[in-house]
Amino acid sequence: MRNIFTICIITLVLSCKNNPQIHESSIIPKPIKTEFTNSDFKINKNTTIIYNDSDIDFKKVANYLHEEIKKNQNFNLKIDVSEKISKKNSILLIKDTTQNLSTEEYLIIVTRKNIQIFSSTAHGSFYGIQTLLQLTKITNQNNQFTYSNIIPGVKIYDYPRFKWRGMHLDVCRHFYDKEFVKKYIDVLAMHKMNTFHWHLTEDQGWRIEIKKYPKLTEIGSIRKETMVGKNWNEFDGIPHGGFYTQDDIKEVVQYAADRYITIVPEIEMPGHSLAALASYPEFGCTGEPYEVEKTWGVFNDVYCAGNDKTFEFLQDVLTEVIALFPGKYIHIGGDECPKEAWEKCPKCQKRIKAEGLKDEAELQSYFIRRIEKLLIANNKKLIGWDEILEGGLAPSAAVMSWRGAESGIQAAKMKHDVVMAPNKQCYFDHYQGDPAKEPLAIGGFTDLAEVYSYDPVPVELNDQESKYIMGAQANIWTEYITTPEHIEYMALPRLCALAEVVWSQKEQKDFEDFKTRLKIHVVRLKAKNYNYRTLDF
Ligand code: TNX
């Protein structure tokens, strides 16, 4: 009898401990502070979402939560406005200006009575909602997903470590339609990422409508065929194309903004520009007919840096791009620009002499500085791949360090803003397991542990210099990725690990604990119909 009594007590204690543990251990990225209580909240059809109407953006966030609860728990909750913060049976989005909370910071208190989300901005409230959505338990029975209506009693306090939490997508090597881009944005938002780097132009395809230059999409968005696998001499004979109209772009920009994601568009120059040259050959050094590229790699034909018409063209293109993207940054590429064509081009050589430049590396720097002036005049900031350091960095450019950390370190020491995206840890086009057992990839090896262990702040930087590290991002190049399912497989769960790298505090990181949470977290991904790799956890 006594034994049974003891077992009952132990079971009770364990279950009380375990339940909250299960919930605590599933939030990704891990919040700063989480304290579970036994005061659970139950959503029912009379629960009201309440926001403070002094800020219109809170209304949008309230609507977002309403839609999510409708999709997940099938409750069509009422939305109301109130100043009171203690209403019963409600989810309160409270604008709190008394606690000095930063833009993305939030505090959630869940009790039997109500759920309070405190933040100083709607942006912070949105992250509170993302955490709230992750507090819901989901059960999977034969791929039928049921969302619990019980939200565990908890107090969570949270804010991010970095301000640039990015994911990139190359829609040029293979085109992905706007519906998929929105699904991709959704999974970024779920992980509190705030930047989407949209790689829109390349040798193999130009993907954004430019009204003044219609041939960019009429000609530049279609390649005749594509090389097969890694065989540079074999082609599939199938045309590949696709582009976004300016209306599509506006729709996606708004969709992202509603999820507190800023889109950084990338218009590549001076290299990786064959699709543009195929459309308007006069902007190349030789003016010869060019073709939208059918293979992968780095190509010698680039924009002519000696021709003022090239800059007029790029100015026109960027003017339309600037009007579409409200964010501060415009990415101008700048990577992998061979100098062969410039060496042979009389116009480029003339420019080198006239501007007193030392060589073609300085001509590249001249090119980027000229573009930077144009962006600054339009209140935008230039960001480029780390090759923009060659020949001298443009005065206020930000650097995206991809070939390793070195360029990031160099730029930070020069007091330039930096986004870390070193290929070893942040290239999600790399293999994540034994190549023999994985779908064909470009190469490399970047598994979940490698991503998780990454620290964007290099040890070489002192505290002052470290402030220039805005954060990190992962890149998904799509030479060998041809379907949405495959993109998701490459992104997930590595994106979950990256989210924790850029959001959670360094001291909190624990790979074993992360993997335990990930096992629960992936049910949420599955319920939202994302594909992911299961082998690493
Ligand atoms: C390098 S990263 C590139 C891309 C390729 C990628 C493949 C960068 C700035 N340039 O053009 O797609 O490697 O991993």
Can you walk me through this structure?
36% of the residues lie in helices and 19% in strands. The protein is of the alpha/beta class. It folds into 2 domains: 4-158, Chitobiase, domain 2 (2-Layer Sandwich), CATH 3.30.379; 164-527, Alpha-Beta Barrel (TIM Barrel). The strands form 7 sheets. Strands 12-13-20-21-22-23-24-25 form an 8-stranded parallel beta barrel, surrounded by 5 helices. A hairpin with a 2-residue loop joins strand 17 (227-228) and strand 18 (231-235). Helix 2 (56-73) runs parallel beside helix 3, helix 4 packs parallel to helix 6 (246-257) and helix 8 crosses helix 11. The site of ligand TNX has 9 residues, from loops.
What is the CA-based Rg, rounded?
25 Å
Tally of distinct domains: 2
CATH fold-level assignment of the largest domain: TIM Barrel
Give the CA-based shape.
globular
Q: What is the count of β-strands?
A: 25
| CATH class identity of the largest domain | Alpha Beta
N-to-C span: 42 Å
Please state how the strands of the largest beta sheet are arranged side by side. 12-13-20-21-22-23-24-25
State the low-pLDDT regions, or none.
1-22
Please identify, by name, the CATH architecture of the largest domain.
Alpha-Beta Barrel
What ions, cofactors and ligands are bound?
A: ligand TNX
CATH superfamily of the largest domain: Glycosidases
What structural class results from the helix and strand content?
Answer: alpha/beta
Can you summarize the main beta sheet? Answer: 8 strands, parallel, barrel
Oligomer: single chain
Portion in helices: 25-40%
Q: What is the mean predicted local confidence, pLDDT?
A: 94
